[in-house]
Specification:
The protein is of the alpha+beta class. The protein has 2 domains: 116 residues, Pathogenesis-related Protein p14a; 150 residues, CAP (Pathogenesis-related Protein p14a, 3-Layer(aba) Sandwich), CATH 3.40.33. It is built from 7 helices and 10 strands. The protein is elongated, with a radius of gyration of 24 Å. The protein starts with 5 loop residues before the first strand and ends with a strand. InterPro entries: CAP_dom, CAP_sf, CRISP-related, V5_allergen-like.
């Protein structure tokens, strides 16, 4: 079965880096395939040239030919990259290099250089036909599979499950006690003063729900429209060591010093709630609210690569969805009638 491909902003960034080299054979990251071409610019509008070139990449199969089993053959490199049956993501970019238009598209996963380019057969008729990636579905109208969340990988979007449980080894959940005795933590044993398991799960689920929405292009922006899909995003894990570091900052009961290098990948919020779970919920809402505020947006112009710029004023939101973050740990400390919520992310 063949899979439909989604636009990937990370792959677009890789493609942009390739064309920025302004050379015929730029470097290609591992696990990716690339189609690349440089042509003379004949117009100020590069779009028609890019469309024509895309068609040429596909049309190479007409001159080289393809056997009945869709096996790879010399000369089919560009076609194989685009027609690769297991490909799920693509990102393209272009650049004018002194009158030559350099065009590139990056595709994930890497296309085969031998064997079958794709499986010959009938289009998918139901979800049972789409077995390559866990959780995949069939878009029967198009006859293409839609990739789900492959297991045991580190570069795929969060899955379609509606919740996750903070854990360091085994999953567990608990509720926050209403008595003055703090319940024992099954997530970060012996660290009951730093947070509660209910707050830890609220924080982890809140982050992963948002990252899942961003990966699928479903987060509304204050300026209108939604964030562009960015599938190469990892599900966060909860880190007790990061929580301990965050709690040390929360214990200071003062504004975070952003000039310190080790505080750059840290989110901070002063909550009016003294209940740790309520404080965590309020902090998440505040950080997420940066992107939904009037006029708020990501720089999603072609080639911009979703770069974070100071004038966007979405730093806290950006840390929550930063694609390279893999762990989060948050400390919550009550200071008088307020709670100081600090979340640290890895890599720091």
């Amino acid at each position: 079965m063949r899979f439909s491909v989604d636009w990937d902003c990370i792959l677009e960034t890789y493609a942009q880096k390739a064309v920025d080299q302004c050379q015929d054979k730029p470097t290609v990251p591992d696990k990716l395939s690339m189609v690349y071409k440089a042509v003379d610019l004949t117009t100020c509008n590069p779009t028609p040239l890019f469309k024509n070139q895309t068609q040429e990449w596909w049309n190479v199969v007409k001159t080289v030919g393809l056997d009945a089993q869709a096996n790879f053959a010399s000369g089919l490199e560009d076609f194989a990259t685009l027609a690769h049956g297991k490909a799920t993501r693509i990102g393209c970019a272009q650049k004018n290099c002194n009158g030559k238009l350099h065009m590139a598209c990056m595709v994930y996963p890497k296309a085969p250089s031998s064997g079958k380019i794709y499986q010959v057969g009938n289009p998918c008729a139901g979800n049972a036909d789409c077995k390559t990636y866990e959780g995949s579905t069939c878009a029967s109208a198009k006859g293409l599979c839609k990739a789900g969340y492959p297991g045991n990988t580190t570069d795929t979007p969060p899955g379609e499950d509606t919740s996750s449980t903070a854990t360091t080894s085994t999953e567990s959940t608990s509720t926050e006690a209403t008595t003055t005795t703090k319940p024992a933590s099954t997530i970060c044993p012996g660290k009951e003063a730093m947070s509660t398991d209910k707050a830890r799960n609220t924080i982890l689920n809140g982050h992963n729900d948002l990252r899942r929405a961003v990966a699928n292009g479903k987060v509304p922006m204050g300026s209108g429209g939604t964030t562009r899909p960015c599938a190469k995003m990892m599900r966060l894990n909860y880190s007790c060591p990061l929580e301990a570091e965050a709690y040390e900052l929360a214990k200071q009961c003062k504004e975070l010093d952003r000039t310190a290098n080790n505080n750059r990948n840290v989110n901070f919020f002063i909550s009016s709630k003294t209940n740790k779970n309520e404080a965590a919920t309020e902090a998440l809402a505040k950080w997420y609210g940066e992107i939904t505020a009037t006029g708020a947006h990501l720089d999603q112009a072609t080639g911009a690569g979703n770069l974070l710029k100071p004038d966007l004023k979405i730093d806290s939101f950006a840390r929550m969805i930063w694609a390279e973050n893999i762990n989060v740990g948050c400390g919550i400390n009550t200071c008088g009638k307020q709670s100081y919520v600090v979340c640290k992310y890895d890599p720091t």
